[in-house]
Design brief:
The complex is a heterodimer of chains A (about 260) and B (about 300). Helices cover about 40% and strands about 25% of the residues of chain A. Chain A has about 260 residues and is α/β, with parallel strands linked by helices. In chain A, strands 6-7-8-3-9-10 form a 6-stranded mixed sheet, with helices on both faces. In chain A, helix 6 links the parallel strand 7 and strand 8. In chain A, helix 5 packs parallel to helix 6 and helix 8 packs across helix 9. The N and C termini of chain A lie far apart (about 50 Å). In chain A, about 55% of the residues are buried. Chain B folds into 2 domains: about 50 residues; about 240 residues, no CATH class. Chain B contains 11 helices and no strands. Chain B is elongated. The N and C termini of chain B lie far apart (about 55 Å). Chain B is an all-alpha fold. The longest helix of chain B is centred in the middle third of the chain and has 34 residues. The chains are: A alpha/beta (about 260), B mainly alpha (about 300). The interface between A and B is large, with 49 and 48 residues.
Chain lengths: ~260, ~300
């Protein structure tokens, strides 16, 4: 049990969409400085859980508290403590990287964000991109700039959705090193989703596996893999994906069976 | 002894985290200064979009000039008929189109501002940020005011140069009419934004189309009695109708029609309240049904 302050406390999260329950009673507690991977095959409920943590999807039941602030009651104050970046989101059109970062620095309350922008670009080794247009960047460069944006205001909780998707190993290492530095310096907690299990094993000290909207494992990467009788997280992932596929086949068979 | 050192070390680390968090908070602005900073950030962002997308200048430069030429020429033709009231009708046409641009520019600036976030897939980043809907809309509206000043300047100067129609000579009575039309434009824009939240960027046609419904019903060039009878009650329920009645009174030299302006102001407040309720409800539906996944 960590003695560091609790940064994220999600209790009993439930979300139903029209045809199915996407998230079914998820509890997540993350402490300052912790690096947590939220894993699971497609459809496991990772993104919906992240979106509820971020306050852009309302839970049908349960609550999210960020740094002591309930998201449902005061989304703006809670949001000020969060940074978010996703590997799949482009930079805003028709803006240079510096302009884009300035806009978000100001939205997060930095009157003059220039020092934070310079430090962030340097940390992730992309200073040379400051005057580039967002549309000129490669997907890896966009991801790095997105993470710089998400960390300008030194958030308590950094939420990353697929940050290393489509990155080459060198850029992925830069992301890992930069994030680890931020955690160590500021006590920022990280909640990250990824399909790259080896990246998660390198970055995170704790992983949470979701399957069919529920938490099925929570612990150190090596302990979680061992609890499933495997040596690596990727094998746990594949086992859960197989279970999901078998469950879907069964549902289809039951639906197709004549009454 | 070692355990004690560990405990002291852990407590020191936690204190360090708390101290850094406090220092971090001190660097951030709060209150109205923060809101103003956010509004400026959004206005600046849209200024970049406009300056780097020359086709967007059509709304600010080309359409106002085309409108003043079209309706000014029509007014000249009508006035040349030498029939009773023809010069009056011509003046209605020019004054009407100039003031209609207040509604058009204020509406289009806010609704296309929000659509821009959808087109550039910026919606998710903005919605997870601490900016409020009010601060965002106010930022877009602030930039819209600058665009509108440019567009109105063009139509006013165009009317004076091409058709010798001096809009400012209508007097101070233009000020409350301008204010009412500005708020009506924003109210319509909030309704469009609500539809975009509910139905996605596919509803973008409404951003331009909705004014083509409001325009003829508002009697901007003619009295409401010129409309088909069954449409007249609907027309009279619009604040724009009463604002343009007041405008025609100014054109006729009858002075300020306070009754019409008061009615227009009350209807504007009602329209704004309805639009605010609608957009707030649609944002709640957006969060409830997880429509953000359209942008992720």
């Amino acid at each position: 049990m960590s003695s560091a302050p609790v940064v994220l406390e999600a209790r009993g999260l439930v979300k139903d969409y029209r045809r199915s329950r996407a998230v079914d009673g998820v509890d997540i507690v993350v402490h300052a400085g912790e690096r947590v991977g939220l894993l699971g095959p497609n459809g496991a409920g990772k993104t919906t859980t992240l979106l509820m943590v971020l306050g852009v999807v309302s839970p049908d039941a349960g609550s999210v508290i960020i740094d002591g602030v309930p998201v449902a009651k005061d989304h703006r104050r809670a949001a000020a403590s969060i940074g978010f970046a996703a590997g799949y989101l482009p930079l805003t059109d028709r803006m240079r990287v510096r302009e884009y970062l300035t806009m978000y620095g100001q939205i997060y309350g930095l009157q003059d964000p220039r020092p934070q922008i310079a430090a962030g670009l340097e940390r992730f080794r992309v200073e040379h991109l400051a005057e580039a247009m967002g549309t000129e960047l490669s997907s890896g460069q966009r991801t790095l700039v997105g993470i710089v944006r998400a960390t300008l205001h030194r958030p308590r909780l950094l939420v990353l959705d697929e940050p290393t998707a489509s990155l080459d190993p060198d850029v992925a290492r830069r992301v890992r090193e930069g994030l680890s530095e931020i955690c160590a310096e500021d006590g920022t907690a990280i909640l990250v989703t990824s399909h790259d299990m080896s990246e998660v094993e390198r970055l995170c000290e704790r992983v949470i596996f979701l399957s069919k909207g529920r938490i099925v494992a929570d612990g150190k990467p090596s302990d979680v893999a061992a609890s499933y009788g495997h040596g690596a997280l990727e094998d746990v992932f594949l086992e859960l994906a197989d279970e999901r596929d078998a469950s879907r086949r069964l549902e289809v068979e039951q639906t197709d069976r004549p009454a | 002894m070692n355990e004690m050192a560990d405990i002291n070390g852990a407590a020191g680390a936690v204190d360090g985290i708390r101290a850094r968090a406090a220092a971090r908070d001190d660097a951030l602005l709060r209150g109205w200064r923060l809101s103003w900073l956010r509004m400026r950030a959004i206005a600046t962002r849209h200024a970049y979009v406009l300056l780097r997308s020359p086709h967007r200048l059509f709304d600010v430069v080309l359409w106002p000039v085309v409108d003043v030429l079209l309706f000014g020429s029509l007014a000249t033709f009508v006035a040349s008929g030498h029939t009773s009231g023809s010069s009056q009708a011509a003046a209605y046409l020019i004054a009407g189109i100039v003031l209609w641009h207040v509604v058009y520019q204020s509406q289009i600036a806010v609704s296309t501002g929000v659509l821009e976030e959808s087109w550039s897939r910026n919606m998710l980043n903005l919605m997870v940020s601490p900016i409020s809907a009010f601060e965002y809309v106010a930022g877009v509206a602030l930039f819209g005011l600058l665009k509108m000043a440019g567009a109105l300047g063009l139509v006013t100067v165009g009317a004076a140069i091409f058709f010798s129609f001096d809009v400012p000579s209508l007097g101070w009575g233009l000020v409350p009419i301008f204010a009412i039309l500005l708020f009506v434009g924003w109210a319509i824009a909030l309704f469009v934004v609500g539809v975009v939240f509910r139905y996605g960027a596919g509803a973008e046609a409404l951003a331009w189309g909705v004014l083509f419904v409001v325009m003829p019903l508002s009697g901007i060039f003619y009295p409401v009695t010129a409309l088909p009878g069954f449409l007249q009650p609907l027309a009279l329920s619009l604040p724009t109708t009463h604002a343009f009645i007041a405008l025609r009174a100014l054109v006729d030299g009858k002075g300020i029609e306070w009754n019409q302006l008061a009615l227009a102001a009350v209807l504007t407040v009602v329209l704004l309240a309805l639009s605010l309720w609608y957009v707030t409800t649609m944002i709640a539906v957006f969060r409830k049904r997880g429509y953000i996944t359209r942008y992720s």
